[in-house]
Fold this sequence. Notes:
This is Putative alanine-rich protein. It comes from Streptomyces himastatinicus ATCC 53653. The protein is α/β, with parallel strands linked by helices and 404 residues long. Helices cover 36% and strands 17% of the residues. It is globular and about 60 Å long.
Amino acid sequence: xxxxxxxxxxxxxxxxxxxxxxxxxxxxxxxxxxxxxxxxxxxxxxxxxxxxxxxxxxxxxxxxxxxxxxxxxxxxxxxxxxxxxxxxxxxxxxxxxxxxxxxxxxxxxxxxxxxxxxxxxxxxxxxxxxxxxxxxxxxxxxxxxxxxxxxxxxxxxxxxxxxxxxxxxxxxxxxxxxxxxxxxxxxxxxxxxxxxxxxxxxxxxxxxxxxxxxxxxxxxxxxxxxxxxxxxxxxxxxxxxxxxxxxxxxxxxxxxxxxxxxxxxxxxxxxxxxxxxxxxxxxxxxxxxxxxxxxxxxxxxxxxxxxxxxxxxxxxxxxxxxxxxxxxxxxxxxxxxxxxxxxxxxxxxxxxxxxxxxxxxxxxxxxxxxxxxxxxxxxxxxxxxxxxxxxxxxxxxxxxxxxx
Length: 404
């Protein structure tokens, strides 16, 4: 009954956040999908509903990707070769902005989010608009002054830098347009902060440099014009900082703790600025991909600033690497969340995970034991038939598990 109510209202019906003891709480599960997983496949919505999930996070604005479509009756691979908005791009909304979303020419219609949304709602599934903010290679290449640039001067065109007011305005307009045109049952925000060195692009060849976590962090610090202005406003000398970062990356003297602390404040503040402006433009049920790591970059942006807990309904922690990573991330997020904010674990059902429901259920149970109220399942459109079966079986298993 509670799961059915959750589907009808697009809300989470499980027990209080972090509640343990007593009967095992209802586990809310949200499957992630792309519009092309549904559009043109009459069987898709029922197939997703049969998994037993409570809602779908459907991409409304997403970065480039080459995606398998193992079930689709018309194709097996979609090449979404640039970031795009899967809703109409209205000239009036973007007038005067250098940053305008791309349109997906690989889709048969400009409002494929709506077509997929309606098909999923028709089988009782609420649809949350999965919206990626600062990850956009198309715009970063077109406007390199707005992209992250490391201490060596190397640009990261996939990474729009939110230190720039233009980038923050783009993100807030994007959120307003997704809500106005997409009318979703909720909003899922990814990359609500800067990206860094890590990208995971089609031809990434950086692993062999053997940069450790410290070097990765330093190579993620940005020296674009807007970030340089922030360093200067904080009383730092950008040229000296750039030199010290280069030396540290290459194995010379580490940066002094006081300097690290100053940069940490600048970095967490620029992320908080973006988050504040985006959330002011948002409404309804809001889910935020987040990290407690003050140096975090990428899909799960840091919330480790001195501000109040983010006013969102759910914070999603990454469990991409392992259940241990997920448990650690969930544990670290809880003190930064409001008491009423739910926690979710972002768990993949794709390689290198096996298509084995016992392995998936064990990982998911560990995340639930660590405080997750929800499981965000990546990815119901990319998964093979065997993986979807494993996902469904694992979800059944964790919902009938003994109390954690």
